[in-house]
Design goal:
The chain is an alpha/beta fold. The chain folds into two domains: about 170 residues, Rossmann fold, CATH 3.40.50; about 90 residues, Pantoate-beta-alanine ligase, C-terminal domain (Pantoate--beta-alanine Ligase, Chain: A,domain 2), CATH 3.30.1300.10. It contains nine helices and nine strands. Helix 8 packs antiparallel against helix 9. The longest helix is centred in the C-terminal third of the chain and has 17 residues.
């Protein structure tokens, strides 16, 4: 049975009865198979799971899709029930921000100024602020996040480490469609033709990751993206696993963001670089 709660007081009452470590999966709703995989991993590894559903206004910039972001609570609840999630916390804006928009927010530091941070100023400050609030409200000992939003995951890990929050942050690999497209709530905005064009993102990452020297990785990925005129690239970057400058060898990450039509998509893959390869 899945219990739906909307207020922080009702959530506290439910958590008072929870046994064992509490895990949280944070979402903005419009749940898909990627979210369900997070729930499954959380259920397998943790005693008690809370899924949060909240479209956070602080992480949307001017001209972004806050108002049109899909809100599908009934379908989301059905997905949570199917995955055996005990509690869904779906608060209102006033419950999360009872004093209005906060004047003090989490600042992401230099890591928040690159990649997504350069394209979406203020996004990571809003994201980290709500994550910290939800960690406290859910009393989570562990939190699960998908690797598709890799910079988000890296920043949350850094926040938890730097502020010494009593929570473990665990990443879960990206879930993809059979054709390779990374699952995203924004995929529903794509027309059939745009969706075919969007496959260039995962194809570029996959082919780039077959190489082991940085120049070949980027050249291969760039060539594939350039061959798809409907894809307008915001960035293609090769970094270290921690999003620092790409190493000469060792674990690395290849990341891309692009617009297909009016829909902005992101994706990334891990790879290993080898010196002199």
């Amino acid at each position: 049975m899945t219990t739906l709660v909307h207020t922080r007081d009702d959530l506290a009452s439910v958590l008072d009865e929870a046994a064992g470590e509490i895990a949280v999966v944070m979402t903005m709703g419009a749940l898909h198979e990627g979210h369900r995989q997070l729930m499954r991993v959380a259920r397998e590894r943790s005693a008690f799971v809370v899924v949060t559903i909240f479209v956070n206004p602080l992480q949307f910039g001017p001209g972004e899709d806050y108002e049109k972001y899909p809100r599908t609570l009934d379908e989301d609840l059905a997905a949570c029930r199917a995955e055996g999630v005990p509690v869904v916390f779906a608060p209102s804006r006033d419950d999360v921000y009872p004093h209005g928009a906060p004047s003090i927010t989490m600042q992401p530091g230099p890591l928040g100024d690159i990649l997504e941070g350069a394209s979406r100023p203020g996004h990571f400050s809003g994201m980290l602020t709500v994550v910290e609030k939800l960690l406290l409200l859910t009393r989570a000992g562990v939190a699960y996040f998908g690797e598709k939003d890799y910079q988000q995951l890296a920043l949350i890990r850094r926040m938890a480490r730097d502020l010494e929050l009593p929570v473990e942050i665990r990443g879960v690999p990206t879930v993809r469609e059979p054709d390779g497209l990374a699952l995203s709530s924004r995929n529903r905005y794509l027309s059939a033709d745009q969706r075919r064009s969007a496959l260039a993102l995962s194809r570029a990452l996959r082919e780039g990751a077959t190489h082991t020297d940085p120049e070949s990785v980027l050249a291969t990925a760039h060539k594939i993206l350039a061959g798809e005129p409907e894809v307008r690239v915001d960035y293609l970057a090769l970094t270290g696993a921690d999003l620092a400058a790409a190493p000469v060898e060792g674990p690395a990450r290849l990341l891309v963001a692009a617009r297909v039509g009016t829909t902005r998509l992101i994706d990334n893959v891990p790879l290993t670089l080898r010196k002199g390869a």
